[in-house]
Amino acid sequence: MLIEFSVGNYRSIKSKVTFSMVAANLSSKNKSLDHDNLTYYNKNIKILNSAVIYGANASGKSNLIKSIAFMRNFILNSSKDTQVSESIKVESYSLSTATDKRPSYFEIVFAYDSTTYRYGFEADKEKVHSEWLYISKTREVNLFERNNDKIEAKGSFKEGKGLETKTRENALFLSVCAQFNGDISKLIVRYIQEISIISGIQDMHYRPYTIKQLENSDESRISVLKMLQKFDFDISDIATEHLPVNEKSFPKDMPEGLIKFFLASSSTAIQIKTIHKKYDESNKHIGSVAFNLDNNESEGTQKMFSMCGPLLDVLSKGMTLIIDELDARLHPIITRQIIKLFNDKNYNTNNAQLIFATHDTNLLDNKFFRRDQIWFTEKNMFGETALYSLVGFKIRNDASFEKDYIAGKYGAIPFIGDFTRMEVDEDAQKTI
């Protein structure tokens, strides 16, 4: 389970901010939330099953998610031979000279079985400046520490001994240890790998994940179908068809790189057929009609189909799912139901977690979310993103979260200028 994530000097995030899934000591108006929306990790820590991030456009919601994605990708790929001469693809905060020569900061804390792991690093485009790993069962113990070229693997981290000199300055020591089959490092890398980060807008990127579920077994195909039916999509069955492909076979909005990847990996494409019942004039069921998912189904149906694979996988394995723009092209009731999957102990039996960014204020409901599940991003006048939780506000239990948010009581909303005055600022133009 994810406990917290911290990042600093990355894109619009200048000072270090921390996103936490640790439940606060509070009592909700809807008492069932204090039971259903969190999991007891141990006697001292309660972890939230879901959290939502609000903020104006360009306030930094997506940058927070991108920072987690960067950390994940760097951990998984930094030790590969193909990265030997590559610069580190990290993007520091660029609106202040104070951060120009400083590395970006990343740290993740998570729980696995009865152990808590705290791992982090600082890096710029040229090299990893520092790196650390701590584990805790009853007390926190340092396993290794890195300071520029000096890496010290402690006695309790035997898998790291001898690998200090095998670690490039643009690679992570943790990744190298995992590559050499270190037990602890492999566990951490596997956990990081199982954090799923998807876009609620570009669903084509993770549709193959659902297709794989469809073709894996009848059981997994039925699971996808049942999920679609539960969300009130009028589909009686799903089928796949393999067709020969060329560049014209793919949707027009599909990224060119993804098209080339599929053409290189296979000479056939899988077309999804949604099966619908057909009725006669007296509404008697007489057969079925097969629709092409891309041509005949709504964008909402297409998105929900693409999301079924990641949702089912995360829930079955107890992983963490992070979605940017969850509500895009989905009805608010469907969005709510997706969240309820994670806040329902009868369905979320493996303590999976959902973290998502949205503009859907219908979800800002004290009957649906605890205050510690609601987060905000806001930019100041210098373009720096601040991250904060609703817990930091003194509000009544019966307050209307949505009404107060729209009224600006929590910040994190756009400040609209006076559209009756649209003159060009000539002084501002002279500085460009």
By secondary-structure content and strand pairing, the structural class works out as alpha+beta
Query: What's the total number of strands?
Result: 18
How many helices? The count is 12
The proportion of residues in beta strands is 25-35%
Give keywords:
alpha+beta; 2 domains; 6-stranded mixed β-sheet; 18 strands; 27% helix
Describe the model.
This protein has 432 residues and is of the alpha+beta class. The protein has helices at residues 33-36, 61-77, 173-179, 183-193, 207-216, 218-230, 256-265, 293-296, 299-317, 332-342, 401-406, 426-430, and strands at residues 2-8, 17-20, 38-40, 46-48, 50-55, 104-112, 115-123, 128-136, 140-147, 150-153, 196-199, 237-244, 268-279, 285-292, 320-324, 353-357, 374-379, 385-389. The protein has a 7-stranded antiparallel β-sheet with strand order 2-1-6-7-8-9-10, covered by helices on one side. Strand 9 and strand 10 (150-153) form a beta hairpin. It starts with a strand and ends with a helix. The mean pLDDT is 91.
Summarize the structure.
Helix content is 27%, strand content 27%. It is built from twelve helices and 18 strands. The mean pLDDT is 91.
How are the elements arranged and paired?
Blueprint: E1 2-8, E2 17-20, H1 33-36, E3 38-40, E4 46-48, E5 50-55, H2 61-77, E6 104-112, E7 115-123, E8 128-136, E9 140-147, E10 150-153, H3 173-179, H4 183-193, E11 196-199, H5 207-216, H6 218-230, E12 237-244, H7 256-265, E13 268-279, E14 285-292, H8 293-296, H9 299-317, E15 320-324, H10 332-342, E16 353-357, E17 374-379, E18 385-389, H11 401-406, H12 426-430
Parallel strand pairs: 5-16, 5-17, 11-15, 15-16
Antiparallel strand pairs: 1-2, 1-6, 3-4, 6-7, 7-8, 8-9, 9-10, 12-13, 13-14, 17-18
Helix pairs in contact: 3-4, 5-6, 5-9, 6-9
